[in-house]
Amino acid sequence: MQELEDRIRHDGIVKAGNVLKVDAFLNHQCDVELFDHMGAEWARLFEGVEINKILTIEASGIGMACIAAQHFGGVPVVFAKKAQSINLDGEQYATTIYSFTKQKEYPVIVGKRFLSEGDKVLIIDDFLANGCALEGLIKICEAAGAEVAGIGIAVEKGFQGGGDKLRERGFRVESLARIADMDCETGEITFA
């Protein structure tokens, strides 16, 4: 998606350790108009695919998933929580994921009443690097008996291999911006 790539080139900051900061428009300050265009693009890419739920993970995926849902007929958005709370009641699906950017493991939890056998789920997330967060969400879908109908990613760091592994396993992954290489010395970003 050219608009997203242009925005990454203009406002993205490459840091050491394969970190790309896009907090000016994607995962701290949110450009809602851009999110709307992203949602329209995912709807185009997944046209004809039966989807009755969108699943994401808190916190960065929530905004873009909610706006994208409007392009899928207003299907419900379910987000996996990263911590147990007194508001989480009833039975739950739970697993752990490793966060590349936070460099630690998190529990992820979804209430069983929000994800059911037979659901056709589109997973949406802001980044795909090694694929650990997505693996956790896929495990939750599998535990629920839900089908992962597709995976929509805003920014995929293709050089880290997570997307390729998921595609090899048969998952349909549609990334709106796929980065082939980043250089923290020059700040240069090359898209695939």
From TrEMBL:
<feature type="binding site">
    <location>
        <begin position="129"/>
        <end position="133"/>
    </location>
    <ligand>
        <name>5-phospho-alpha-D-ribose 1-diphosphate</name>
    </ligand>
</feature>
<dbReference type="InterPro" id="IPR000836">
    <property type="entry name" value="PRTase_dom"/>
</dbReference>
<protein>
    <recommendedName>
        <fullName>Xanthine phosphoribosyltransferase</fullName>
        <ecNumber>2.4.2.22</ecNumber>
    </recommendedName>
</protein>
<dbReference type="GO" id="GO:0046110">
    <property type="term" value="P:xanthine metabolic process"/>
</dbReference>
<keyword id="KW-0963">Cytoplasm</keyword>
<feature type="binding site">
    <location>
        <position position="27"/>
    </location>
    <ligand>
        <name>xanthine</name>
    </ligand>
</feature>
<keyword id="KW-0660">Purine salvage</keyword>
<feature type="domain" description="Phosphoribosyltransferase">
    <location>
        <begin position="52"/>
        <end position="158"/>
    </location>
</feature>
<keyword id="KW-0328">Glycosyltransferase</keyword>
<comment type="subunit">
    <text>Homodimer.</text>
</comment>
<feature type="binding site">
    <location>
        <position position="20"/>
    </location>
    <ligand>
        <name>xanthine</name>
    </ligand>
</feature>
<dbReference type="Pfam" id="PF00156">
    <property type="entry name" value="Pribosyltran"/>
</dbReference>
<feature type="binding site">
    <location>
        <position position="157"/>
    </location>
    <ligand>
        <name>xanthine</name>
    </ligand>
</feature>
<dbReference type="InterPro" id="IPR010079">
    <property type="entry name" value="Xanthine_PRibTrfase"/>
</dbReference>
<dbReference type="GO" id="GO:0000310">
    <property type="term" value="F:xanthine phosphoribosyltransferase activity"/>
</dbReference>
<dbReference type="GO" id="GO:0006166">
    <property type="term" value="P:purine ribonucleoside salvage"/>
</dbReference>
<dbReference type="GO" id="GO:0032265">
    <property type="term" value="P:XMP salvage"/>
</dbReference>
<dbReference type="GO" id="GO:0005737">
    <property type="term" value="C:cytoplasm"/>
</dbReference>
<comment type="pathway">
    <text>Purine metabolism; XMP biosynthesis via salvage pathway; XMP from xanthine: step 1/1.</text>
</comment>
<dbReference type="InterPro" id="IPR029057">
    <property type="entry name" value="PRTase-like"/>
</dbReference>
<dbReference type="InterPro" id="IPR050118">
    <property type="entry name" value="Pur/Pyrimidine_PRTase"/>
</dbReference>
<comment type="function">
    <text>Converts the preformed base xanthine, a product of nucleic acid breakdown, to xanthosine 5'-monophosphate (XMP), so it can be reused for RNA or DNA synthesis.</text>
</comment>
<comment type="similarity">
    <text>Belongs to the purine/pyrimidine phosphoribosyltransferase family. Xpt subfamily.</text>
</comment>
<keyword id="KW-0808">Transferase</keyword>
